[in-house]
Known about the structure:
The complex is a heterodimer of chains A (145) and B (324). With 145 residues, chain A is an alpha+beta fold. Chain A has helices at residues 103-119, 123-144, and strands at residues 15-21, 24-32, 34-39, 42-46, 53-57, 60-66, 69-82, 87-97.
Amino acid sequence: MTPRPPTPSTIPSKLTVNLVLPYDSLLSAKEVDMVIVPATTGQMGVLPGHVATIAELKPGVLTVHEGNEVKKYFLSSGFAFIHANSVADIMAVEATPLDQIDSSLVQKGLTEFTQKLNAASTDVEKAEAQIGVDVHSALNAALTG
Amino acid sequence: MAMAALRREGRRFAAPLISNNPINPFRSSFAPAEEQALLGVRSISTQIVRNRMRSVKNIQKITKAMKMVAASKLRAIQTRAENSRGLWQPFTALLGDTPSVDVKKNVIVTITSDKGLCGGINSTSVKISRGLRKLNSGPDQESKYVILGEKAKAQLVRDSKKHIELIITELQKNPLNYTQVSVLADDILKNVEYDALRIVFNKFQSVVSFLPTTATVLSPEVVEREAESGGKLGELDSYEIEGGETKSEVLQNLTEFQFSCVMFNAVLENACSEQGARMSAMDSSSRNAGDMLDRLTLAYNRTRQASITTELIEIISGASALQG
């Protein structure tokens, strides 16, 4: 593993982002201006020089701002580490660019899981249905918002 | 004429060229194999040599095929293993790698293959697991095994049966994916009490080189303890926590996620090492079979030529006996 750079004395101009998934590294050591991560406490913007943070992520949209281009990925939960040396590691189980998501399937999934939630009897079933509803409503919000 | 008759009978005889007995032409032409045994066998019958050659050639074909199969499986899984290497690096950047941590409850997760014929990688993993156990045995320390794969089960059940917590086999029945490994990790975390999990596997460096590695994952309580005492995890307290009710809840989710990520990479790397080791084992096996085939071919030719020479000698000495 390549060693990480030490904490610089001045705030660097760019943020180095690593976006890793189990089957691929989508972004590795990419220099960007800002990322917005979907933390459980809400959307969190990260700029270079951000204070060191460990953030738990919920299903939502990751936005990467590089100059004038903005790339959006939908993340299924994970973790984000922001280190003091302006390196951000984002680990998710799945990440897809928004244009690859089919909105009709999202609607279908949402209605299906809402029905399951209403019909659920045991705690386990309720939890599973709740997760399905959360993910699909986040997908919906991502596509429409 | 005698030669034609011999051939029709399908008999082959070894030539007692170097035998001490004088060659009696009529006797040796029709001598059955048992008489040769009585005389003292100096060379083998060509039939036996031919049988051996056939079986060695078949083995060579089989091992060559196994090498090809292993090579194609390796190609398929190697890219996935290399892509998964980025997954555990952020965790190590945050929490560091502390194999020398001193804890009460160690759990050693040994990852091996189900199938054999893959060289010595499984034995090395088991040796290291045993070594780790010895290293972490103290007055109030205990180590338990969680075994993945048939090969480790066969070796560890013999002498450490009461220290084994969980045995999981047939991991590669379906292609490896993250969902399966995370369910497995969840099972282990639920059923086993641990302070530190040490995952032993073979890291894939190249087709001919595999490094036995151990990855250490600490439980949330140990992480907090180490963070307070300073050292490698000392900087953990400087990180702000976003999300979750308490820090310990987030730390728990973090360590569980870390375990499943590290396990995923470990399982993939071990699978790659298994295929690579099998490739080189089958390659050396086919090479050995080829060498053996060469030696047998030489022996066969020597035997065949000697028997032809014997026949000729018999005929000629018979003819000269008739003349003179």
